[in-house]
Prior knowledge:
Layout: H1 2-8, E1 14-17, H2 43-52, E2 59-62, H3 69-76, E3 80-85, H4 88-95, H5 103-112, H6 125-128, H7 134-149, H8 153-164, H9 186-195, H10 205-216, H11 225-229, E4 233-236, E5 250-255, H12 265-268, H13 270-276, H14 292-309, E6 310-319, E7 322-325, E8 328-331, H15 332-339, E9 345-354, H16 359-363, E10 375-383
Parallel strand pairs: 1-9, 2-3, 2-5, 3-4, 5-6
Antiparallel strand pairs: 6-10, 7-8, 9-10
Amino acid sequence: MAGAIKQLRDESRYIYGEFWTAKQRQGHPIHHTVSYRASFKPELPSFFMHEFLKKKKCVVYDPFGGRGTTAVQANIDGHIAIHNDIHPLSIFLASSRQYVPSLSELTEKVESLDLTKHVCEEEGDEKLLPFFHPRTLSEIKNLKKYLAEDQSPLMRFIGLIALSRLHGHSSGFFSVYTFPQLSIPSEAQRKNNIKRNQTPEYRSIKPRIIQKMKRDLSNPMPPFYHEFSRENKYTLASANHVPEIESDSVDLIVTSPPFLDKVDYEGDNWLRHWFLDIPKNAERKLSIFSNVKEWNRFIQSTLKESSRVLKRGSLMVMEVGEVKKGNEIINLDEDVVQMASGTGLIWEKTYIHTQAFTKLSNCWQVSNNEKGTNSNRCVVLRKI
């Protein structure tokens, strides 16, 4: 422990600066197809790929894949990606962009779908009707049936776009006014409807899907994107045990684990789970922790597994930020350095990317030195 503490006081290993832009949505629009809480900007993995990979077609891995930012950016930057997450929704978000069809293909396919078929009322509709007009809900259910029957890349991408339009705060969404980043409980939406004096109106879903596709595909994908993305791998597992990934097979890891008890991924995505038919699973424990000791134990086991899959001499970048517990500011990068001891990884340096909070952060009442992430603290570890 004394050695670790001495390392933490070695200020020469801390690099401060603004290494990528702090502006909103500077990456390719394909990154922003679906909102997803606790995502980092695509400029973060891109910076470290350019910094540490000196050739193309390297293997870049994210054990906490989230909405697929690292995987998509790896393909854009000319690398092969491995995307892992314990959440099935995450696997869908990432793998649905493994192949990005042309706008003309997608539009033709959407127009060919018959979403006007009669749909019987089902148990659970009462939870959905505070969000959707009955006719809109009928169209969504018809689209769900198409998705269940057709798992082609074309249909999966349409499903991804529809998922992004499922609920939100403008007329471009399928739902009445609600939150876009998370699915609030049905009863909470009923209260919102009363408070706002609103009733879900009919919203045809086809034009909204097509409009969103036009925005997301406004910039062409790099011509080589599919050359790399077709070799991607998507694994559904806890980050501390991913047996499908071979040992000594990864050139770079760029990831960000969950911070303590900040996000309830299961509850926040219940409408998306319904749309994708993701069943509840009591055995699926998402990594949300109530104290630092518990978080540290999980991080240490994740670092050990990450060391196994990394090639010798290759690097892992873990972005952890800082959090507030009570009146104490905890710099989690220092815990990561200590937890690396005995895992086969050694601390190289820590990049501290300072920036002002984004508009989204301010919406969540996150302000400097109070809650959540104030700076990107990226710990760089090397496999020995």
